[in-house]
């Protein structure tokens, strides 16, 4: 069992445990506290949590709304949770984000723990403290920073995860590897076949490295004023593709195409040496992320122009600068669009 901690200013220490058979440890840690389980109906919450009141999140991403949050808050209130109670969110990023938001709001904030059951949630969304709900106007427009006090990761959950969702999580792991962890990059290169087979020891290593990299950044910059923006590598185009497809494509798959674009832009602006760009591209392809043709640029422009990371007329772009290194560059929209045009063409 691996244990990592994250100390953010103004928040209690968050603990991330990675290992197998965490159910009993979970039950023991809950002890006699009043608790409530919010879970994804694709999974059965750990047996050890039997008997604790619960609610299933139905409706997937489309129900990651304030109405969905209210439904959960009412159920928590019906279960008479108090300030010392605990909310356990078992599922993917949707359940983690919405559960975390409900925990941040209920009685102005109660403790919550995450038990991530998708690869994306394990390598990314279950750590770092961002909670969210969507509005009809856009994704994740409402939220709060409310870190899970504990995250309990067991890669055993991944056995039943559909292929597309597994790949979506792999893209976020590739993002960490390309942008900030050369050792993880080499590991993905050397062991991608075992990872594809969902070898649990291999997946544990990948998840461990991703969580460690994210926690290190979040500790330095919990509220995304600086370095944390590096975690948006691949997301400038990724978010635009996701929105243009009306969120019908899993997040990570859009990010993977965004990573290809970031590498292209880095290469054409000489931010990344061609040899390293080629290596990064090859890894993405080996992991199953083809450099597919993009939709017409005109359909992407409004989303790019509206990008959250935009400041004034400049777009803050997470730029890969080598294998395992990246930095934030301010670009204007025209530069971005020109690079997009040449990406489509190349
Ligand atoms: N808070 C953050 O920092 C952060 C970071 C990245 C993404 N997100 C959010 O995370 C969400 C995406 O997360 P996701 O990719 O986990 O999606 P998800 O929660 O929708 O799960 C994907 C699918 O897998 C199913 N599922 C979950 N666990 C399973 C299992 N073990 N076996 C079989 N099926 C299973 C779910 O029912 C769902 O259909 C988005 O809403 C995104 O905005 C948040």
Structure summary, number of beta strands: 12
* Share of helical residues: 40-55%
Spatial arrangement of strands, main beta sheet? 1-2-9-6-5-3-4
Specify the overall morphology. Answer: globular
Radius of gyration, taken over Cα atoms and rounded to an integer in Å: 20 Å
Percentage of β-strand residues: 15-25%
Any low-confidence stretches, pLDDT <50, length ≥5? none
Tally of individual helices: 12
H and E order: EEHEEHEHEHEEEHHHHHHHEEEH
Ligands, ions, cofactors: nicotinamide-adenine-dinucleotide
Structural class: alpha/beta
Q: Quote the distance from N terminus to C terminus.
A: 46 Å
The main sheet comes to:
7 strands, mixed
Arithmetic mean of pLDDT? 94
How does this model look, in words?
- Helices cover 46% and strands 19% of the residues.
- The chain is an alpha/beta fold and 346 residues long.
- A hairpin with a 2-residue loop joins strand 10 (310-311) and strand 11 (314-322).
- The longest helix has 21 residues, at 200-220.
- Nicotinamide-adenine-dinucleotide binds at residues 40, 42-43, 60-61, 64, 91-95, 97, 117-118, 120-121, 124-125, 128, 130, 139-140, 157, 160-161, 165, 168, 250-251.
């Amino acid at each position: 069992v691996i244990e990592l901690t994250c100390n953010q200013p103004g928040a209690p220490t968050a603990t991330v445990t990675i290992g197998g058979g965490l159910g009993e440890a979970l039950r023991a840690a809950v002890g006699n506290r009043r608790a409530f389980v919010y879970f994804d109906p694709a999974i059965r919450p750990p047996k050890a949590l039997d008997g604790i009141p619960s609610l299933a999140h139905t409706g997937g991403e489309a129900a990651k709304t304030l109405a969905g949050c209210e439904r959960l808050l009412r159920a928590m209130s019906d279960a008479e949770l108090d300030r010392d109670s605990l909310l356990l969110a078992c599922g993917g990023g949707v359940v983690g984000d919405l559960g975390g938001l409900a925990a941040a709001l209920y009685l102005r904030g109660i403790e919550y723990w995450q038990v991530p059951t998708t690869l994306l949630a394990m390598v990314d969304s279950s750590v770092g403290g961002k909670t969210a709900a969507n509005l009809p106007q856009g994704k994740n427009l409402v939220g709060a920073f409310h870190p899970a006090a504990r995250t309990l990761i067991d890669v055993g959950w991944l056995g039943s995860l559909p292929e597309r969702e597994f790949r979506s999580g792999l893209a976020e792991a590739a993002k960490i590897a390309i942008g900030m962890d050369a050792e993880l990059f080499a590991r993905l290169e050397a062991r991608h076949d075992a990872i594809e087979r969902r070898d649990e020891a291999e997946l544990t290593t990948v998840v461990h490295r991703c969580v460690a990299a994210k926690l290190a950044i979040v500790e330095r910059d919990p509220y995304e004023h600086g370095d944390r923006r590096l975690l948006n590598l691949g997301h400038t185009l990724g978010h635009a593709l996701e929105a243009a497809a009306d969120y019908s494509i899993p997040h990570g798959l859009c990010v993977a195409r965004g990573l290809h674009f970031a590498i292209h832009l880095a290469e054409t602006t000489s931010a990344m040496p061609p040899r390293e760009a080629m290596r990064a591209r090859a890894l993405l392809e080996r992991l199953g992320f083809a450099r597919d043709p993009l939709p017409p640029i005109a359909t992407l422009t409004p989303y790019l122009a509206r990008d959250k990371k935009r400041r004034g007329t400049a777009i803050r772009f997470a730029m890969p600068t080598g294998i395992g290194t990246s930095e934030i560059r301010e670009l204007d929209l025209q530069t971005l669009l020109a690079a997009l045009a040449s990406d489509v063409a190349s």
